[in-house]
From TrEMBL:
Superkingdom classification of source: Bacteria
Provenance organism: Tersicoccus solisilvae
Domain CN hydrolase: 5-243
Region (Disordered): 284-310
Keyword Hydrolase in annotation: yes
Official protein name in the record: CN hydrolase domain-containing protein
Keywords: Hydrolase
SUPFAM superfamilies recorded: Carbon-nitrogen hydrolase
């Protein structure tokens, strides 16, 4: 058995602000060029770029762009996904929360034209990124395929984020990025490291020049780079992955050797974690909460044949 997922990762510069027509036309061309792809992914803040605005100007620009998830931008994106019949992650944009604060939020739309997931960046890049921080990790089920976890740019630098998504059952972690700086070299390594230690697929999708340094890549649960960009130029990375590779890596081991998700057994003792004023509980290590709307219990160790997690 296998669970194939075909995806198109768009390493692209930011879209023109307040011009969803241009974005929609580009997306339609991309879908026509890659009709076999099911999931289309864009970089961080692809639709809400602040460009080279000064700090004071940037704050005002962010305030002017921010809107609720079900605002005009959200409704238009949902309609695009439905009209084209694809899973769409249009990058992230500035969300105006019900609490009045502005968040950097990634959203997922289904082929039926519905918003099925939204994630607020938990680790904004301080002190430069002046938005509110999210407080919840988010995974969601792609019906009949598998489970997707969301992260945004700087989140990848905190191993707790990717580990938590894997614990919640994510088989593919999408890290949406807008990094123009020289530390993109380190982020490429982090994408591989997060894939290796969690035995999941990781797609790190960075913006193209002039907004980002590119070098997007897709890593498999063994830590092997399946496809990558070696430049900052605009391009689309396409591939077909088998999400059953996650369960295989955990069952047989990375390089047929290492199985970190099998580290703890019912006979293991708890391990104190002073950093978090908590502990690793062996009884919880292989158990995760069920995401809202999911029909199966999320477990890092195994995948069921209906595309959910057993």
């Amino acid at each position: 058995m296998s669970r194939p997922l075909s995806l198109a990762l768009a390493q692209a510069p930011a879209a023109p602000v307040n011009d969803l027509g241009t974005f929609g036309a580009g997306l339609e061309r991309l879908v026509r060029a890659h009709p076999q792809s099911q999931l289309f992914v864009y970089p961080e803040l692809h639709l809400h770029d602040t460009g080279s605005a000064e700090p004071g100007e940037e704050a005002a620009l962010i305030e002017s762009m921010a809107e609720p998830l079900d605002g005009p931008t959200g409704r238009a994106l949902a309609e695009m996904a439905g009209d084209l019949g694809v899973w769409l992650v249009p990058g992230s944009f500035f969300e105006r929360g019900e609490d009045g604060q502005v968040y950097n939020t990634a959203v997922v739309y289904s082929p039926s034209g519905r918003r099925v997931g939204a994630y607020r960046k938990v680790f904004p890049w301080r002190p430069y990124e002046r938005v509110a921080a999210g407080s919840e990790f988010v995974v969601l089920d792609l019906a009949g395929v598998g489970r997707l976890g969301l992260s945004i740019c700087y989140d990848a630098w905190f191993p707790e984020a990717s580990r938590h998504l894997a614990w919640m059952g994510a088989e593919l972690i999408l890290n949406l990025v807008k990094t123009p700086t020289s530390d993109r070299a380190q982020e490429v390594i982090l994408a591989r490291a997060n894939a290796i230690v969690n035995q999941v697929f990781v797609a790190s999708v960075n913006a193209a020049a002039p907004d980002g340094a590119g070098r997007s890549l897709l890593v498999d649960p063994q830590g092997r780079v399946r496809i990558e960009s070696d430049s900052s130029e605009s391009r689309v990375l396409t591939d077909v992955i088998d999400l059953d590779d996650v369960a295989n890596a955990r069952a047989y081991g990375t390089a047929a050797v290492t199985r970190p998700w099998q580290q703890f057994t019912e006979f293991a003792d708890e391990i104190e974690l002073p950093l978090y004023s908590g502990r690793i509980d062996p009884d919880r290590w292989g158990r995760a909460p069920v995401p809202e709307g999911a029909g199966a219990r999320a477990t890092p160790g195994a995948a069921s044949r209906d595309g959910g997690l057993a």
